[in-house]
Amino acid sequence: MNDDTVKLLRECGSGVKMGITAIDDVIDKVDSREFYQLLKDSRNEHDKLENEIQVLLDHLGDEGKEPHPIAQSMARMKSGAMLSMEESDQKIADLITDGCNNGVKCLHRYLNEYKTADEQSRQIARRLVNIEERLSVDIRSYL
After folding, report:
1. CA dihedral in degrees (39, 41, 43, 44; nearest 10)?
2. CA pair distance 22, 98, nearest whole angstrom
3. For the chain, where are the E strands, in sequence order?
4. Distance between CA 13 and CA 138 in Å, rounded?
C-alpha cells in the first residue's frame, strides 16, 4: 500500500466521524418522524462505512485519524448558536446540509490530492460522497 491510500482512508474516517457527530448532535431535536428516520438511516450508513474504514486501516497498521478538534468545536458552536435562536427542523436541515456540502467538498479535494491511493480507498471516498449528497437531497423539503 502506498502512503496516499493510508492518507485518503484517514481523511475518510475523520469525515465519517464528523458526520456521525453532527447527526448525533441534532437527531433528538427533530420533530418530523420522516426527517428523524432519514437522519437515523444516514447515521447507520456512516457507522457501517466507519467500521469498514477502520478494518482497512487496522490491516494497514494505522490507527486512523480523529476529526480536528478545532473543526469539531467550530461545528458544535455553529449548531449550538443556530439552534439556540430557533430550534426547528428547518434549522437542523440547514445545518446538516451545510455539513454534507462541506464533507463533499473536502472529499473531492482529498481524491484529487491523493491521486495514487488504491482503488478500494478511492471507492470508499466516493461512497461517502454519495451518502452525503443523498442526505442533503433527501432533506431539502425540510429547508
Report:
1. 170
2. 11
3. none
4. 23
pTM confidence score: 0.90
Orientation angle between helical segments 89-113 and 33-59, nearest 10 degrees: 20
Rounded to whole angstroms, the Cα distance separating 122 from 42 reads 20
Query: Cell digits for 125?
Result: 471516498
Residue appearing with cell numbers 458544535: 76
**Closest to 124 in 3D by CA, of 21, 1, 16, 42:** 16
Could you report the per-residue pLDDT of 50-87, keeping only the tens digit for each?
Answer: 999 999 999 999 989 888 777 777 777 777 777 778 88
CATH number of the domain enclosing 65: 1.20.1260.10
User: What distance in Å separates the CA atoms of residue 63 and residue 104, rounded to the nearest whole number?
Assistant: 23
Tally of structural domains, the chain:
1
Domain membership of residue 23 as a residue range: 3-142
Residue 53, Cβ density class (10 Å: 0-12 exposed, 13-18 middle, ≥19 buried):
buried
**Cβ count within 10 A of residue 78:** 13
